[in-house]
What we know:
The structure holds four protein chains of four kinds. By secondary structure, chain A is mostly beta strands. Chain A is built from one helix and 31 strands. Chain A is globular. By secondary structure, chain B is of the alpha+beta class. Chain B has a four-stranded antiparallel beta sheet with strand order 1-2-3-4, with no helix packed on it. Among the domains of chain B are: 72-419, YVTN repeat-like/Quinoprotein amine dehydrogenase (Methylamine Dehydrogenase, Chain H, 7 Propeller); 427-526, Orthogonal Bundle (Cytochrome Bc1 Complex, Chain D, domain 2). In chain B, helix 4 (425-433) packs across helix 8 (515-526) and helix 9 (545-554) packs across helix 12 (644-654). Among the domains of chain D are: 110-226 and 364-432, Rossmann fold (3-Layer(aba) Sandwich), CATH 3.40.50; 230-356, Response regulator (Rossmann fold, 3-Layer(aba) Sandwich). Chain D has helices at 2-19, 29-33, 123-143, 165-175, 187-200, 229-243, 257-272, 291-299, 311-323, 339-345, 365-378, 384-403, 407-415, and strands at residues 56-58, 85-86, 110-118, 152-159, 180-182, 203-206, 222-224, 249-254, 279-283, 304-308, 329-332, 353-356, 417-422, 425-428, 440-445, 448-451. Chain D is globular and about 70 Å long. The two termini of chain D are 15 Å apart. Chains B and C meet through helix 7 of B and strand 30 of C. Strand 18 (228-229) of chain A pairs antiparallel with strand 2 (85-86) of chain D.
Amino acid sequence: MKNRLSPPFAIVIGLASALSHAQGMNAPAPAPGAGPLPIPVVSRFENFGEKDGIPSHKVHCVLKASDGRIWIGTPNGLCVRQDNGTFRRYGTEDGLSHLTVLSIAEDPATGDLWIATLQGLTRLSGGRFTAFTQTNSGLPNNVVYGVAVAEGTVWAATAAGTGAYDLRTRAWKPYDQTNTVMNEPWCYAVAPGKGVIYLGVWAGGVVEHDPHTGTFKAYRDPDGEFHIALATDSGPIVDVTSWVAYDQGILWQGSYFGLARYNTGSATWRTWVQDKTPLLSNFVNTVFAHGRLGWVSTDRGVSVTDGDNWVNYLVDKEGRGVVRIYRPGKPPETRMMTTALPDGFIMAVWADDHEAWFATSNGLSHGVFTVSSDSSALTSNP
Amino acid sequence: MNLKRSLFAVTTAALAFSVVVLGGGYGLRAHQRIRSGRPDLGLVSCTHCHQGSLNKMPWAKARPHHDSPGGMVLSPDGKRLFIALDDKDEVAEADVATLAVLRRAKVPGGPFGLALDAQGERLFVACQHVDQVAVLDTSDLAEKARVSVGVRPTDIAFCPTRGGERLVVTNSGSDDISILSPSPLAEVARVAGGREPYAATVVDGGRCVYVANRMAVHDGQLAPPASEVTVLDPASGHIVNRLALDSAHMAEGIAAVPKKGWVLNTMIRVRNLVPITQVKDGWVMASGLAISQADGAVTQVPLDEANASFSDPSGVVASPDGRRAFVASGGSDVVTVVDLDWLNSWLSRASPADRGDAIMDMAFSYHYVLARIPTGCNPKHLALSPDGSRLFVAERLDDSVLVVDTASLKPLGRIVLGDGGRNDPIRQGERVFTRARYTFQGGFDCRSCHADGHVDGLSYDFDGSGVGDNLLDNRSLCGVAGTEPFKWNGRNPTLQFQDGPRFARVLMRTDPIPDPQLDELATFILHLPPTRTIPWDQVGKPLTPAQQRGRDLFFATKRPNGTPIPRSRQCQVCHRPPLYTNRLIASVGTQGRRDPKEGFDTPHLIGVGASAPYLHDGRARTLEEIWTVYQIDDLHGVSSYWTKLQLNDMVEYLRTL
Amino acid sequence: MTRKTSASLLLGAAVLLLAACDPQAQQGSIVLTQVPVGAPAPQDMTVLDARYPPGSRVVLLSPPFGAQAVRVLSEGLEAAGDPCVSWDGRWVYFAGKDKDRQGWQIYRVAAGGGSPERLTDAPGGAMDPAVAAHEELVYSSPVPKAGRLWASPEPPSLYGMLPGKAPRRLTFGPDAAVNPTVLRDGRILYVGAAASDSRRAQPHLCLYTVNNDGTEVTAYAGQDDGVDTVRRPRELGDGRIGFLASRGHEPGASEWAEGVRSAAPFATRANLLPFPGQGCRSVEPTPEGELLVCADVAGMVGRSMTANAALFRVAPGAAELGAPVFDDPSWNSIEATGIARRDEAAGHTTTVMPAASQGTILCLNANDSCEPATDGTGSPAAQLRITAIVGPGQLRVLGTVPVASDGSVLVRLPAGVPLGLDTLDGAGRVLRHQPPVFWLLPGENRACVGCHERRSHSPRNVRPLAVQTDPESIGLAGKSYSR
Amino acid sequence: MRNTLFAIIAASIAASAALGADAPPVSSAEGRDNRVPGALPAAQVPGTTAPAASRFIYATPEEEYPPYGGLPKELWPFANTEPYYRYFVTRMPFRGPGRDYPPEANLKSLRIGLVDAPKVGANWERSVRTREGIVLAMEEANLERGPGELPFDLIEHEGIAQWGGAANLAAQLADEKVLAYLGTIDGTDAHVALRVTLKTEIVMVNTSDPDQTLTETQIPWLIRVLPDHRQEEGRLAELMVRTCGCKRIAVLRAGNRFARVGAHQFEDFARRLGCPVVQELLFSPGATDIPYQIAAIKESQPDAIFFLGEPNDIGRFAKQFRQAGVKARFFGTDLLMEDGFLQNAGDAAEGTTFTFYSDPTRQDPLWTEFSARFKKRWGHEPDTYAAYAYDGAEILLHAIRISGPNRWRIRDGVYNLDYYQGVTGWMRFDGTGSNTAPVCIVRYEKGRRVFEPQVEFAPPSNAGTLTRSP
């Protein structure tokens, strides 16, 4: 509750925004007198679009693979960034199971990519595509929203359950409402946790599954209602989960009703909604977890937070970049940037300590971090 | 009086006998119709259902074992040759100078693939029957360690990498590749291969390993198949490339070519999509060599000639100077010597179209085939001495190793391992099985489509009464004993009938295999055990819950709501255990536009998990597709009530058979 | 002496007796055709009369091949020639002319000698014997008039005749099929004329193969290269096919030996012998890998320019013909073949269904050709037109069938007549033309890669669209749609 | 609360001024211009079947909607606690780009998708009637297309019964380049299709799924023209508890998702009205006899039984309840309108009370004229599925007419609708995009359906202003 914005604070945001607009501030620099911000700040956006070979406006997802290559999923195929900076496209003619690519995951053991599409799950291995569909395999449904690989198992969140494909035994294990605690079979995302898998279930909250013991635990909205969030910080923001992400003990739940975070160490939840907190919008497409940070893709820009500090990236109506920084106990800082995200409707983010990539509704953007940001603080628990 | 009494007695007895026979026959037929759910069924043998025990099958009985040479490896100094004897569970060590066998060591589990470390101190052995890799100390051939890998490992390659020493193991039965750390012996990664990873070769001193995948995969019934060459980085375990050998299968040999940066694959170029009307000019299949260059370009060139074939290309080695390659043709009993310099020169000037067409030109090999060296029966694995002066040819069905002087291409002698099993009819039958001379111009042999007796995963359009109306999936020969009749139309009551004059007419285009050899062939096939589809350490273990649920579905007689499933559409009625077939013709709604009849032989399901594709013409790529794509009106078992989970359970169960 | 020993002695004596009476020839013997030097040719002669004038004979030549070692095998015949030996080496087949019958037929005689047995009674005579699997006699019939071999109104065809069975016609082409020899793979290799529309006086002769049931007639070599006349093909055992070549069709034209490699027969035509070989009469392999060559000695050192033909044995890699192994100046030694047991040629299980009246042909891609289309537009074929020779000089268009979008065509056609194929574009213009040259046998299923496709090429592994539906049926009278 | 709302609004205005990052206003000028203050008669251009612009009333930016579908506060969850956050009082905007994207090249027709019900299943017949309404609307629309205008084209797919098949069909429709689509009946189908809709950005008009949770997802690519179970059951619960004075309510429902979601909503309402249900028992769809369930419910001595399931099943069980001596009143939802209930229940139907969407006996000219046209086209009277399907199609066709072939602008034209006067009467779309027009109460009397008199709903006079209170 202590971090909830009071109503006047909301006004401040608006006014500050208007003010910053008027001042035309440049790229952000550390606020005078402030300590190191435990969130890296983007100093510059490098944008890529159709001119660079990206075959659609919208980019659904982005992944920097372990070999350094940037992969993106679009409604018109899978693309990889080539050495010359342009993007090479792969379509169904190459073996991709469907043109609409929604999510990409890399198998850390093999370097294979697993590609979630609107019509099946596709493996890209050694340059060759192999399609898994609901008719030729144990994939529960062809509409695959999220995919993750952990401990030799590919997890695919589909419109009719989550499928687990054991890469060693080639056996599929479908999970739905009949064999788990899922309220509904509609899965949106999977996130490997520490020895467990988190399933983002549409209308079913978040389901934690321990594949070793075969046990399930459902995290559900305490009020059980879609029309209200009765209280804050008491559980998932809503049962209608649109995304889950996990890293270093922190589980994030994205929804179109706001954002929630679960600290698996302390078993505590925190929730955020637009207007009352720095969260840019309730409409959270995805969350990318890196260290203690969540990179939250919303329909109004990107919110980056460790739970206490926030860095929001927006695009004003003139198309200019705006960054807002919130620190506990300090007034928010709003600055204009010399560059901007190509669009405020952000589909997904990939980030590490050195850079971030943004999949937006109008192309791909590369976020170059400010050199002075203290990346070592990223993994510390404030 | 006595006569009358006798007449009466005889008449009574005759009448009684007639009543019993007629009544019994009627009752028996009624019983069969009820139990099969097939009111149209005529009187059939009781053995269709009452099949007896699998323990009585020929393949379940003890058989003679032979000293068949498998993988071979030479010591770094070239003085000793290690030979895997998988059928005897032994590894032999031979003196290259004297050709004498020095030692034999017991290595349980079907030792097949061999590799030595750089110093020649540790011999790594892939044991295909128990899914393990063993390490022997070459000083005493004592086993030092053992580790589990994937199913049916066939080859092993040792390579130093930037991450330390690695072993790459081809797990042919689980379609994956194990990467091991030799010290301590442990599996560090397992990556998906193509279909049946079979042999591996190290390139650039361990920078990457190329793996030959024996069977082809294809993306649909009428799509050209392709065998994969899997290229992986043994240090990271990442797949670097998956090269496709277009329309190739049985690609079981692989060799790196020093100084040229190539990798050679032996392969059979199939034309399974083309109706079989002739054998000549590779219309059914032809032997070839695939050259993978460092840039990923793959060029296929023929090993066959315009008027002669050299079937079952298997082992391949390249000379240390990279100028020659040697290819064993297991079905034709020759080793072909290939001029790699000529090919290099040609490749340097060939257009992409030329490269693509080369494999089609059966007269092309005339340019680069230097010689055909005759060998003993079924040459398979090859090894070259480190200096390239001696070629060792494993004559697998003669239990010997031929040694050839690579300068003169003349034989120097043989390492004799066994007696060749001349008195064993099973072994004799295997010779027939692998002998291409029964086919026109030696185009192919039984093994060309049935490696190890199993399937090649392809559908062929055999010559029938017309052209293009006989597309049929290749069926496994493993475990077929007792499952007669054979062929998808169920017309062949015996293997002799199946493989005799009929085969000669529609496929081999020669005289039929002579009766004595045909009997031997049938003996061999009947002794082929079912293909093992599950890991060795799972054999005999209880079913998993999913498998058990699938089994319950398989044997279900009612739907969950209690409505009975008609007997004719219960899985277990047609696919009746223990053979999982009632050996009758069944119509399951799969008649194609040009299939002359709607009914097909009910195939047995033993090893079905490894015999994709499915249905009579191979239209179903996976078990799932049988019910998700090709099920019509619940004709192939009542599946409409299955949830996705239940279908998955069924598939999981079938994979255990 | 024990009973056992007595039995052994008796048995040994019996074997010796039988051996003495055995008509087998001595190991290393040679069968030779001898033509008297200067013999006049008869009037109204046939091609065989020209080649084997009266007095010509087939003889057995035993080592060491002196003139006294000659034993006549064609005893009682007016003329004889063209011997060939059975697989087991026990029999010699040859063409012989009986004094009384005034015609040429095929005879058989024990290799060691004996009375010739006439095997054929072919109308118009029989010639060119060869032996296929299962001792099946293959021959060519009828025997044309001299000088009319390639212009005969009744061109000779090949026949096969199993022991005790009636002869079966094997070839149905529009031109002569002669000089058969049986390859180890079981096919019959013979000399025919390259496909042509014109009945030229001088056709281009080349080699074809056909299965021993008459199916799968296929070009073998020489269709696209070399001089116009070839004769007497033989499989030499070293991967080569040898034959005689000459310029022109006049009898007596000087011939020389050529050969192709079976591994690449369309690309390897060359002189067979590494030295000048004019005047060559025959080439045959020996089991030892040498060649038996009958050649004129005219012009050789020490011989006049009108000398006879003699027999030579040529070792592999020999730089010159060397001295003859047999040379009788009063005879021309024109054909020689060794007598030895050889591996029998492969058999062939026939696919012919005698009750059927049609065969089926599948063309995988009518647009696949190594020749440009005549219209030069690159238009794909839309239809395939089928022509046939339905009687002497009677060429008939049987009908057309559509070509599928991938170029494939599947059609049932009448059996036993020379068939030709033309691809037509959408406007009905001929793209590629194939005069009637091939045939189908009843029930035969045949396929080709394309139209004038590259020689010795395999098909691509593609499922032809044409096989998705039942084929159309075309009879001699035209198209019918019943199966 | 008032302060909070003010703060939010003020901040929004400020932010909007600064960033302009909020939803664009309705792109169609027609939409805004045709916002009519006050209830309107059925204005229709003579000689045309296309709805007049006056029948469409669109939303304004930041417009507020009554919470909880406009139901009485006593039916709200946690009605006596002000929640930390309240959703659906504004509509989730779509902030993404696309409205200025050019149309697809070489467009030959304006494609509209339709996902039918699976052929095997209870909804197939309803789906057939749904289709009839849609086809009629499209045929009429095509007759009125002017020269050079692209025709409308229906891309139709039969539903797939299993394994989330509707999701696959929704993806397939995207591949087939539809501009929008209609369907489905089953709640599961609609849910999975909706999620695809968000990814493919193709607006969906649902005409026949009463699952109240369908539109409660914040996905701004869906409206539903059929009043949902929340409206039906809220009305029914009040009727049962408040009007009829029922004290012991039992629930018998089908063992499927449709009935689960509906029954649990009803039970929430009953509880909130102080009358928690005494029993909730399930039956297998298609079951013939349910003696155990009947015995258990009888033992609980109910004075009312709420049914949810297929009408054939419910009719059969109603009869069995009466035969077992159960005297409780029967209640149910719209499905009991179907003949199957009456046929199977026989005399047991007497007194059964249920909710229904739109009174087919109305004499509203829009309805009567539509009925006549429908009967002429299909040879029988339209039912509720056909009628709502017709209305849904008309909304979609109108949106395409005013937006052109641009999926994002079509979305605006559909999703920003506040009120629409269709052949089924006036619709009122709430913050979730669901029609919250009041439902009717129907009762079986002597084998006839008796509709309780109801005041015709019409938009309030302040429709289209910035804020409104319930």
